[in-house]
Design a protein that fits this description.
Elements (H helix, E strand, L loop, with lengths): L1 H34 L5 E3 L3 E6 L4 E10 L3 E5 L11 E3 L3 E12 L5 H13 L3 E2 L5 H4 L4 E6 L11 E6 L6 E6 L2 E6 L3 E6 L9 E12 L7 E10 L1 E10 L5 E12 L4 E10 L19 H8 L7 H12 L8 H5 L6 E2 L15 E10 L3 E22 L4 H4 L5 H5 L1 E9 L9 E7 L2 E8 L6 E9 L3 E9 L5 E5 L2 E16 L5 E10 L1 E5 L4 E7 L6 E11 L4 E11 L1
Parallel strand pairs: 1-4, 2-17, 15-22, 20-28
Antiparallel strand pairs: 2-3, 3-14, 4-13, 5-14, 6-13, 7-13, 8-9, 8-12, 9-10, 10-11, 15-16, 16-20, 17-19, 18-24, 20-21, 21-24, 22-23, 25-27, 26-27, 27-32, 28-31, 29-32, 30-31
């Protein structure tokens, strides 16, 4: 009886122990599951709108929706300019950036190409120097080629031992002899040996978002704006002078995309000159940037990151400069004279920025598109422009060349901008009767404002400039307790028209000094004060009808202090 009760007790003890063990195990599994971080979801964040500058910079908008609270990783990693990264959402969102190390398979050629492409675009850093041809040196391999490799005999694969190969090639010793193939034609490489070459690693950037939804909403709309590089536009004009009184001007835009594939993206082109203080400075959110490199970039020093180096290249390469206009730009002269109030309907409020909407843009990465945007007609007249360099009297008493002293004479066309938006700084091609005439450049010209564009050099007009001082009129003066001399000079301009038809002549001269008087009532304009001189900067101009074989002489008097 005792033994029977004992066996029953043992039986229930075993059952109870089994139940406790099972419950404990189940609870442990639940606890383990609770400590495992959920996988971060990759979310698409396509570009929805893009505003393009001409210097490789763009204002990029990405609109996308996140599935409520949680951790997400953006499929496309933005590369923002310092201080321009802004997220807009009704929920609180934290942004985390960094880089992760990934192994690359030397067997997978497409993976290698991807890594090399990332390296070229500045989005990745290869940590091991390698060449595929060296990695497999002396190894017995099977090489599979692309179907379109065009290899003789139609073979798409070869077996052999890798020999010392030139860069970009793979030399194989096969049973039938030697064969050399281009790395671009290789689909993959497999080694029949046990040992494999060391596979490189690549550092790829990532950007993650942590969403704290206050209302536990199922979706969280997000709008991301930032300035970034990788897409730009280049304008150009064609001016047709076939009609003797009315020209036809056409605007074309070339857009180059190096960011990502764009699908139905709203696109606007910007002309103007905004302040871009930090356009070549990286954001601290840039994946892979160190504090040292970040601070060095802010100080204007070079940074190792390829993306930042590209920014500096963009900033210098897309800066238009004209040697004959540098002086006028420095003095604040725009080169065009408004005939009426400029039409700013396309500009920002109270700013001289103009936005040209060209509709939706679809353009793959690394593609370039040319778009015909606008054309219009405008009445014009042919003029001859003589621009005389700003020289002092010592230049005319030296052995300087006549061109350096007297400047150049150009046949030009003068017309008012017929568009409702400005002409921007861009090359201009001139054609007439389906013939190429010349290529020049346009400056920024407001709508309805006059501009003069150079076409060809006027070789049938001869000119000379003579300048001399009347030493008897010199005066000793005191300025800010400093003894100075005031000089009085005369400039004589002479020009003759050897053409069989009359020309409308525009003469322009800029000099340091104060205008006194001149023949034929020139227009006089004080451009700016010269901070490094006691003399103002003065610009005078004439518009004269010069008959065929006519010669004129113009004199003007001015004073200057030294």
């Amino acid at each position: 009886m005792f033994n029977s009760k004992l066996s029953v007790s043992l039986k229930w003890l075993l059952i109870l122990s089994f139940v406790i063990t099972a419950l404990t195990s189940f609870a442990g599994e639940k606890a383990d599951q609770a400590t495992v971080a959920p996988a971060i979801k990759i979310v698409s964040n396509p570009i929805s709108r893009i505003l393009l500058y001409k210097n490789g910079l763009a204002y990029i908008t990405r609109n996308f929706t996140l599935p409520g609270s949680g951790d997400y990783e953006m499929k496309s990693v933005p590369d923002p300019v310092y201080g321009t990264f802004w997220l807009q959402s009704d929920d609180r969102i934290e942004v985390l950036t960094g880089t992760r190390i990934e192994n690359l398979s030397l067997d997978n050629k497409s993976e290698m190409r991807r890594a090399l492409h990332q390296l070229q675009s500045g989005n990745a850093i290869i940590y091991h120097d390698y060449r595929i041809e060296d990695a497999y040196l002396g190894k017995d391999v099977m090489v599979s080629l692309n179907n379109n490799s065009g290899t003789s005999g139609g073979n798409n694969y070869f077996n052999g031992i890798v020999m010392k190969s030139p860069s970009g090639k793979l030399l194989l010793k096969t049973q039938r002899g030697y064969i050399m193939v281009s790395l671009n034609d290789i689909q993959n490489i497999k080694s029949t040996e046990i040992t494999k070459p060391k596979e490189p690693t690549v550092s790829t950037p990532y950007m993650q978002l942590k969403v704290y939804s206050a209302k536990n909403a199922k979706t969280t709309p997000v709008k991301l704006n930032y300035l970034g590089y990788g897409i730009t536009w280049s304008p150009s004009y064609q001016v047709d002078l076939t009609n003797p009184t009315n020209l036809r001007i056409e605007l074309k835009a070339i857009i180059r995309n190096e960011i990502e594939d764009l699908t139905n993206v709203e696109c606007e082109l910007i002309s103007g000159f905004p302040a871009l203080k930090f356009s070549n400075k990286p954001s601290l959110l840039t994946p892979g940037i160190s504090i040292e490199d970040y601070l060095a970039a802010l100080d204007g020093n070079s940074v190792r990151l390829g993306r930042v180096a590209k920014r500096k290249a963009y900033a210098s390469a897309f800066a238009y400069q004209r040697a004959d206009k540098d002086e006028e730009f420095a003095l604040g002269y725009s080169g065009s004279t408004p005939t009426s109030t400029p039409v700013n309907t396309k500009s920002g409020s109270g700013t001289d920025l103009y936005f040209k909407n060209i509709g939706n843009l679809t353009l793959e990465k690394d593609q370039t598109i040319s778009k015909q945007l606008e054309f219009s007609n405008a009445s014009y007249e042919k003029v001859v422009e003589w621009s005389i360099p700003r020289n002092d009297i010592r230049t005319y008493n030296s052995n300087a060349s006549d061109e350096n002293r007297s400047g150049e004479i150009w046949d030009c066309v003068k017309f008012a901008n017929p568009f409702t938006f400005p002409l921007t700084t861009a090359p201009v091609t001139f054609v007439q009767n389906d013939r190429f005439i010349a290529e020049g450049m346009s400056d920024f010209v407001n709508p309805q404002a006059q501009t003069v564009l150079k076409v060809t050099k006027a070789l049938s007009l001869k000119k000379s400039v003579t300048e001399y001082e009347d030493t008897s009129k010199r005066e000793r003066i005191t300025i800010e307790k400093s003894n100075r001399t005031k000089h009085y000079a005369t400039c004589e301009l002479k020009i003759k028209n050897f053409r069989s038809e009359p020309v409308k002549l525009i003469i322009k001269r800029t000099f340091n000094g104060e205008f006194i008087d001149g023949e034929r009532n020139p227009k006089v304009k004080a451009l700016a004060e010269n901070m490094n001189s006691y003399n103002p900067v003065t610009r005078i101009s004439w518009e004269i009808d010069l008959a065929n074989l006519q010669e004129i002489t113009l004199k003007y008097n001015y004073s200057y202090i030294n």
